[in-house]
Amino acid sequence: MIGHLRDEGGAEVFRLVNERVRLGILSALAVTHSLSFADLKQTLGVTDGNLSIHARKLEESQFIVCEKTFQDRRPLTQYTLTPKGRAAFERYLGHMEALIEAMRKPK
Amino acid sequence: MPNSEEPSRTHEHALSQLRYIRSTMDGATRFTAVPGAGTAVIGVTAFVAAGLGQMQSTRDAMLSVWVGEAVVAGGIGLVALIVKSRSAGIDLTRGAARKFVLALMPSAVCAAAIALALAVQGQTTLIPAVWLTGYGSAVVAAGTHSVSTVPIMGAAFVVAGLAALFVAPQFHNALLALAFGGIHLTFGMHIARHHGG
Q1: Within the 40-69 window of chain A, which residues sit less than 8 Å (CB to CB) from chain B?
Q2: B16 at interface of A, judged by CB pairs closer than 8 A
Q3: Rounded to whole angstroms, how far apart are CA atoms B171 and B62?
Q4: Hey, is the C-beta of A90 within 8 angstroms of any chain B C-beta?
Q5: B154 and which of A12, A53, B11, B139 could share a cystine (Cβ 3.0–4.6 Å)?
């Protein structure tokens, strides 16, 4: 079933989003305007390094944008979901729901 | 030969991913617009109030100064909350923000009412403890919908309130300064530094 969905052009979405931390980043940003690195780290319960790596991959795919500013001379990193990222997340969500629905249908 | 376990594993995976998405969304909707800078400013005004309270010749006058400080602090807190929420694009009437505000209210309103009743009956000795425990309980309750620093701050106020029950009344002004000044300033600066202002 996943293979069939991949054939429909969702390969990039699946490759990126199917990983737990990246899925968590998209899920968290889907329900908030933006989240700081610290808030995202606390929400997902991951290490700095782990979050940085996965956030960078989502940034490279233009699924999220990262804004780095300074507040009281300390760096503040804020992440926001892009329209492309939201579409990818919603598509992934739709695929997961379709999978569950397909399994429920009588054979 | 087809693997009959494959559809079941796929189904389980999809369910697990959806559960994870739901729990992450719940966790992410914590109210993150608690105004750290505004809380720190409230701490500063509390120290000013403590200075003024120390100058008063009667206990009633000292407590009146703190009532005035509560009004000032409430105004600062409300403005700071609205400013930070707007800058973060958070609607205070929805979601975690709404839960935060609603959770704050019951203990705060009860504490204010009990303190008023005690004042009317002339039992002013217990008022600082009621203020501190009531406010602390309100912050702990509201903090369950916010970042982890907020309920810890509330617990600190509750501890200060419990201490007020056993501290001699002549030290109440200092204890109120330590709590409303020190705790607000310390936690406010921490929130401002780590949670976006």
Answers
A1: 42-44
A2: no
A3: 12
A4: no
A5: B139
- How many residues in total does chain B contain? 197
Identify from A21, A103, A105, A107 which residue to disrupt to test chain B contact, counting B C-beta atoms within 10 A and taking the largest count. A103
Chain B nearest CA to A100, separation (Å): 6
d(CA B106, CA B142): 10
Option in A2, A27, A32 nearest B21 (CB): A27
ipTM score = 0.85
CA of A43 vs chain B CAs: smallest distance (Å): 6
Those residues whose C-beta lies under 8 Å from the C-beta of residue B78, and which sit 6 or more positions away, are: none
On whether the pTM is more than 0.90, the answer is: no
Quick: pLDDT tens for B120-146: 999 999 999 999 999 999 999 999 888
Helix axes B127-143, B149-166, angle to 10 degrees: 160
Residues of chain A with pLDDT under 70: 1-10, 71-72, 105-107
**Residue A107 pLDDT:** 54
